[in-house]
Amino acid sequence: VFLFSDNKAYGITVYSDNERVTAREFEGVYLSCKHNVKKEVGARVEWKKIKGSTVSFVYLNGVFVGSFKDRAEILHSSIHLKNVTRKDSGKYRCEISAPTEQGQGTGEVEISLLVLVPPSAPVCEVPISALSGTVVELRCKESEGVPASKYRWYRNGVILPESTFFWSFKKEKNSYTLNTTTGTLLFNPVSKNDTGEYYCEAYNRVGRPQRCPVKRMQVDDLNVSAIIASVVIVALIMASCGLGVYYAQKKGYFSKRNSSKNTSSKYRTTENEKDFKHTKSFII
């Protein structure tokens, strides 16, 4: 079954067998462009590529230009592209012009080309450790795949279902949200049961799925007893220091030190005065 568009102007009809073409990267592709201009009249054929607001020539004055020069061939008014890459994705316009009874006639048709690209190995973010009862998010992302990749997560080599409904039959408490579009795996909250080895897989039905290296996440309970014990020990140490200072003050250790300092200073002052008087009398 052919899907074609009809664009008729001044007696010229231009159409395509397939206006939406897909091809895997590095394969060949055929862009169909047909018209009703008689062979003896002769038609002028031009191909242009439209990507966003940029328009560039593909085929002009009977030759291919740019990156298409050595990997394309014209078949009547259609073209065959060899070894397509992701950069070839876009819209292509086939323009036909020829003299008609009403004057110079023109017609055109647009074909959309999508080059399919398999995913690359995704980058995964998995925390090494986490505390039970907290919110933990695992991330997975790759940016090469066309169409955009989707994601699935594995724990200990077993795929995690998109819904936690299946886990209810095992009577295990699992609370997570898996977003297959963004690649995030959210535990809200995380528990000790979630401890394990995780990896993510990116896929888009083009080529083989790709995965990131396995990473282990350890989930531990918050040790309340250890925290309380630490607080008690610190409080006891501070109390002991306070009692030691109080005992030293009561026994007068600090005052004895001060008095000894004063005595030594007085002795040094008296000696200085004697030296001064002796020196004065000697001068006289």
TrEMBL record:
Chain segments annotated as transmembrane: 224-248
Membrane topology label: Single-pass type I membrane protein
Keywords: Cell junction, Cell membrane, Disulfide bond, Immunoglobulin domain, Membrane, Signal, Tight junction, Transmembrane, Transmembrane helix
GO biological-process terms attached to the record: hematopoietic stem cell migration to bone marrow; leukocyte tethering or rolling; lymphocyte aggregation; positive regulation of lymphocyte migration
A cellular component term, taken from the record's GO annotations: bicellular tight junction
Organism superkingdom: Eukaryota
InterPro entries attached to this UniProt entry: Ig-like_dom, Ig-like_dom_sf, Ig-like_fold, Ig_sub, Ig_sub2, Immunoglobulin_dom, JAM2
Cell compartment(s), UniProt: Cell junction, Tight junction; Cell membrane
Keyword Transmembrane: yes
Annotated Ig-like domain residues: 31-112, 119-225
Name recorded for this polypeptide: Junctional adhesion molecule 2
Species this protein is from: Laticauda laticaudata (Blue-ringed sea krait)
